[in-house]
Structures are given as structure tokens and as C-alpha cells.
Prior knowledge:
Elements: E1 6-12, E2 15-16, E3 19-20, H1 24-38, E4 42-47, H2 51-64, E5 70-76, E6 79-82, E7 85-88, H3 101-111, E8 113-114, H4 115-122, E9 130-135, E10 160-164, H5 188-191, H6 195-204, H7 211-225, E11 234-236
Amino acid sequence: xxxxxxxxxxxxxxxxxxxxxxxxxxxxxLAVATALRAGGFVVMVREDVNGADxxxxxxxxxxxxxxxxxxxxxxxxxxxxxDGQNLLLPRNTRLDADASAAAVAAQVKASGVPLQEVVEALxxxxxxxxxxxxxxxxxxxxxxxLPRPGLAEQRLPPGxxxxxxxxxxxxxxxxxxxxxxxxAPKDPREIAGSRxxxxxxxxxxxxxxxxxDALRNTHKALVDGAPDQAPPWLGGKSDNxxx
Length: 243
């Protein structure tokens, strides 16, 4: 993609209301943004945003993204599936662990931002490289009441590849992550808090790697590193010969 626009949106939401729910979000957001900038991307970073601000960022990204550019969106936070629809939970989400399953589903649907809106912001022609990475399948006491854990398969348009950090309908425990050292490391692999982000940024900084191979190689490394676990979900297809 030499000479093409490279634009990324990196979103990390580790806080719901005033409560920290995902310690890895801040470090992983910084790590991915650092790796993408090293690869020549202009990076929009949004942290702990509410639903309105997340939608505003998606609108800005869609307006800035050129049809033939290389697009990349990374999201880390809490996500859930309700009635087969994937929803990202912005900061203004209210989750009540004492509520019934129906009430929790209503809370998630009321404030969650559908992942489909992210797909639409990233959408372009099949010939353009578009990459979506979602690290949002984490356990939470309230989300555990929903009928199905984790995320569902996401429908993707031609030309888009997507990588989820976990297998479909699976969620992992929130990892305990130490605060970022001061001064912060320059290597994004040392900045990353979670294993998923560490593998991802290690792939992204590979010299001359194509966009599609970045996700495919990340998926392979995750599978090889945990052969006894269900593999993370890799979906979509890219026919772009210059990605």
C-alpha cells in the first residue's frame, strides 16, 4: 500500500461509570496505537468514551477514510451479544449485577453500540484493505446472566477481515494488569498488557507485512501458543493484492 492513506481508529474502554472494569485497556490501546504509527498509520485514539462520543469518532473516521486507503479499527473493552447482535459497552453503560437476565439484556441494548456500526464506518470497496480487531469478550458478573457469553459471528462485507480475541460465544476472565512503568517503554510489545495485544503488536511491527497477513499471522500465533484452547475467531476475506 505504498502511497496509500493509512488511517486507524484505536478505542479502549476500561471504565464503566466510575468503576474500572478492564485494567488492560489503557496499556493495550497505547501499544496498538504505537505499533500502527510505526507502520505509517495516522491514528485516532479514543479512551473511556461514552456512546455519543464513540459514534462521533466513527462518523469522523468514516469521513476521513479515503476509498482506496488502508483502514484499521481496534477496540478493547467489554462487549456482549444480545439476540445474536454484538454490542460494545461505552463508559455510560449501567450494569447491575443484581438485576435479572432480562434487565441486564435491556441495559446492554439501551446503551451498547452495535458492532455493525463499526463495520459500517470501516466499509469500503472490496479492493480496499479493511481490518477490524475486537478484544471485548470478557467476563463480568452482570454479563454472565446473559443467555450466551462473549460475541457472536459478525457479518462482514467483501474485502474486510476481522479478528476477535476469543472464540465465538466464549469469554475470558479480566486479567490483572500492572500499571505502565514510568518512563513508558518504547517497544509496543513491552507496553501491551494482555497476551492478545502483545501478539497483535508483535505482528504489526513485522517489516513489510501485508494488512491481511497481519491478522492471519496473529491468529496463527495465538492458536499455536494455546493449542488446547478454542481458537479466536478470524472472519471475512480480502482479495486485495496490495494490502
